[in-house]
Amino acid sequence: MKLKKKEQTTICLTVNGRRYVESVEPRKLLSDFLREDCGLTGTHVGCEHGVCGACTILLNGSAVRSCLLFAVQVDGAEIRTVEGLDTEGHLNPLQEAFSEHHALQCGFCTPGILLSASELLEYNPHPTTEEIEEMLSGHLCRCTGYKGIVKAIEKVANRNPKFTHES
Amino acid sequence: MSVKPASFDYYRPDTVDEALQLLDEAEDEGKILAGGQSLVPIMNMRLATPQCIIDVNGLNGLDTIRYESGLMKIGALSRQRCLEQNNLVKEKVPLIAEAAPFIGHTQTRNRGTIGGSLVHADPSAEIPLSLLVLDAQAVIRSCDEERTVPVSDFFVTYLTTDIMPNEMLTEIQIPTEGIPQGYAFVEFSRRHGDFALVDAACLIDTDEQRRITSVRLALGGVDAIPVLSEDATELLVGEKLSSRLLEEVGRAVQAEVDPDEDLHASREYRRHLAGVFAKRAVRLAYQRAIQGGGTG
Ligand code: FES
Ligand code: FES
User: Fold this and answer.
1) What pLDDT, in 10s, does the model give residues B86-102?
2) Does the structure's ipTM exceed the value 0.90?
3) Residue B46 sits in the same domain as residue B145
4) Nearest-Cα residue of chain A relative to residue B57
């Protein structure tokens, strides 16, 4: 594939189980693509250089920074964003636990953390507190002090060992 | 502040040869995009405005990890997350598996690659330091040649390596025959996942009398490039490790390094850390060497 500057190309991908066919120029960041072209503004954009974790999404099941990917790179991929976590309008157990344990205040960091936590629980259903904290080191939260977030994830880890983000 | 990259031509080649051809045609304006965890931040901040991006993420065979005739061969596109999970890496070069979790965060290691980290050449980064202490070789290709460079000759200065604009790193080779049994990777950073202020990696072998027969100690964050300590080798070979000797090694390393001052740490503080972490690395590698035998 060869694209000149500003030249548009069509990409086709699945976001939260829905197919999107959109046209993008090479420099379009995936974070902006999700927000502007797909209208999925649940993916937040904080630093835009890979530090804060607010833009974290699942790319083919792996938690990654969407501000460090170009939309052209994810042609054919399967993406999950925070909008894809609930089931028919009901919060999933992880989201419930966040609400219960005051794991969010302003909510800016929350979508990214939910996706990273989903990845962690998918591959490691019973993470230790240390493993949860290691995962959280990739996210900045300026409100909660992180304690509530750790508690919420711990709760899900113990209550429902079969929890996966696929629900 | 808007943080968006400038426009660029985007190429996604189907083969390594095509990638090299494109790189050659781009002259000085081409940049290889692998994991993008170092390149994209600097593009977003417009510290780099490459005219032409060559995305190698889809290329087959660039991310294989295999063991062949005494060499661990790790494809340049191998994700850092794989390095911490791959059984062959754990068995043959446990030092790398130990260093990998220190690189950024799980969310960046899912994308970031071993090759990207090596060519980015941050002076305190974990991959460059580990590959230096392991005496690895970098396999570098251009349109017309393939060459192999020892990692000890690869770094030039801050963020600068021996690689030319028309060349691409394709593989890393680590000799494992006779590789010392004792290993250690330790580092100090302000917060988990931050850039290390200082890191240290060490390999040690001992004989039946617990005397050190060979040692390599390398430090990162103490100079423009990661450095091997010659004084440590001189002090340690032929000796059993005692606390007195360990103190001597710490002092020697502090005298040997010449760190720069920056926003994160003064020269004195980095020098202090260099001594402390050199000692920690040597102690741990020695313990593993004398316990180890086959198990490392
Ligand atoms: S916006 Fe992507 S990491 Fe901060
Ligand atoms: S809830 Fe406000 S930043 Fe985390």
Assistant:
1) 999 999 999 999 999 99
2) yes
3) no
4) A73
